[in-house]
Amino acid sequence: MSLADLSTRTADTTAQLLPALAERWSPRSYDAAAVIDEEKLNAALEAARWSPSAANTQPWRFIVARRGTPAFDAIVANLLGFNATWAGSAGALIVALAEVIDPEGNERRWANYDLGQAVAHLTIQAHHDGLHAHQMGGFDAQGLREAFDIDERFVPVSVTTLGTVGDPDALPDRLRERELAPRTRVALDDILVVNA
After folding, report:
1. Which residue ranges does the record assign to the Nitroreductase domain (predicted)?
2. What is the CATH number of domain 24-181?
3. DSSP letter at 101?
């Protein structure tokens, strides 16, 4: 697949979706020479800021690090497995934190759910603006906590790459195969427990 073949990544859906949803995918190949577009990065973060949350608590916080900064290097140093081999080419890395305890010490039961919505909004806005995002769970949460002195009320939930798609041929063989594999999903009927 070349950059010209990105249209082949559009989902084969059973219902018509907004283009930003149908075309969204999570690449591992990023252009390591491309600098993150600050206006597009800001728009993605603004989309996260305006996502819904239980009782409007907005329990999300983000660590945003651009490639070439010590903060970026600290995040890469805490990525695990294959993530450490490819994520360093992204233009930016974003650590998503959920505020699971409020300032008064009360549990925020929906914090992880709300953070997930915020990151979803971020990824869709980024894709709409021509950037690509890939969310990862393979990271050392304690390492990130120590690297950024994260308050105990907050839990690192995910790390998201953000940037410009690059050539998949730059990836190691196993990752390139995954990058080029057809997109698949469980059938819609299979995810509906009840559809009365």
Report:
1. 22-163
2. 3.40.109.10
3. B
- Distance of alpha carbon 162 from alpha carbon 142, whole angstroms: 23
Helix (H, G, I), strand (E, B) or coil at 67: coil
Domain ranges within the chain, ordered by starting residue: 24-181
Q: What CA–CA distance (Å, rounded) separates 92 from 82?
A: 17
What are the backbone dihedrals phi and psi of residue 112, each rounded to the nearest 5 degrees, phi first?
-65, -40
Place of tokens 């409007």: 56
Residue 161 contacts residue 123 (beta carbons within 8 Å): no
Q: What is the CA radius of gyration of the chain?
A: 17
H or E element in which residue 95 lies:
strand 92-99
What is the Cα–Cα distance from 44 to 119, expressed in whole angstroms? 9
How many Cα atoms are found within 13 Å in the side-chain-facing hemisphere of 2? Answer: 1
Q: Name the β-bridge partners of 65.
A: 93
Q: Provide the residue count of the chain.
A: 196
Spatial distance between the Cα atoms of 95 and 161, rounded to a whole number of angstroms: 9
Question: 């008064």: which residue's tokens?
Answer: 104
Cβ neighbors of 77 (< 8 A, separation 6 or more) are 143, 147
What is the rounded distance in angstroms from the CA atom of residue 178 to the CA atom of residue 160?
18
Whole-model pTM above 0.70? yes
- Angle, vertex CA 13, rays to CA 12 and CA 17, nearest 5: 120
